Structures are given as C-alpha cells and as structure tokens.
C-alpha cells in the first residue's frame, strides 16, 4: 500500500516537472473582453499585455533588391561589396 502511494507521488511529480519543462500549453490571451461576451462587463484583474513587434526575416536577395531601388543606397559601396558575397 505504501509503495503504491510512493509510486503515485513520484509519477505526479514527474508529470508536473514535464509540464513545467514544456512551458504553457496555451498562448496568453491579449484581451479577454474581446473574445467572450460574458467577460465584457467585468473588469480584468491582470494588466494588459504589451504588444511586441513582429519579427520579420529577410534573405540577402531581398535586402539587395531593396538597396538597388532606394535612392540613397543604389550607388553605395556597401551594395557593390555585397554583390561579391
């Protein structure tokens, strides 16, 4: 009996550790009052989350195309050097 309780406790701790290791399962909601009509009348106790800028990835070809079209960079030394990379 005692061994079964110890095994259950060990399993519960292992599950909790695994859940903490993988992080939260759901993304936090930005504004709770937008999603559900029942929450619209209540005030939220948590402060609103700040929005961070979205990360945009570009490749070298995109950068070169942009530099070729811009007035300030179309004849720059940086543009010409980047053609050799």
Quick synopsis:
This protein has helices spanning about 1-20, 30-35, 60-70, 75-80. It has 4 helices and no strands.
Strand element count: 0
Radius of gyration: 27 Å
Strand content: under 5%
Structural class: mainly alpha
Assembly category: single chain
Distance between the termini: 70 Å
The percentage helix is 40-55%
- Biggest sheet statistics: none
Overall pLDDT, averaged?
A: 80
Which blocks of ≥5 consecutive residues have pLDDT under 50?
Answer: none
Shape: elongated
Tell me the series of helices and strands, N- to C-terminal. HHHH
What are the SSEs and their pairings?
Layout: H1 2-22, H2 32-35, H3 60-69, H4 77-82
Walk me through this protein's architecture.
The protein has helices at residues 2-22, 32-35, 60-69, 77-82. The protein has 85 residues and is mainly alpha-helical. The model has no long low-confidence stretch (mean pLDDT 80). Residues 1-81 form the Transcription initiation factor TFIID component TAF4 C-terminal domain. Belongs to the TAF4 family.
Task: Name its key features.
85 residues, mainly alpha, 48% helix, 0% strand, TAF4_C
């Amino acid at each position: 009996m005692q061994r079964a309780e110890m095994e259950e406790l060990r399993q519960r701790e292992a599950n909790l550790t695994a859940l903490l290791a993988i992080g939260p399962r759901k993304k936090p909601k930005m504004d709770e009052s937008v999603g559900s009509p029942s929450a619209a009348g209540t005030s939220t106790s948590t402060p609103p989350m700040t929005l961070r800028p979205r990360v945009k990835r570009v490749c070298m070809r995109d950068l070169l195309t942009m530099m070729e079209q811009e007035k300030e960079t179309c004849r720059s030394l940086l543009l010409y050097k980047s053609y050799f990379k």
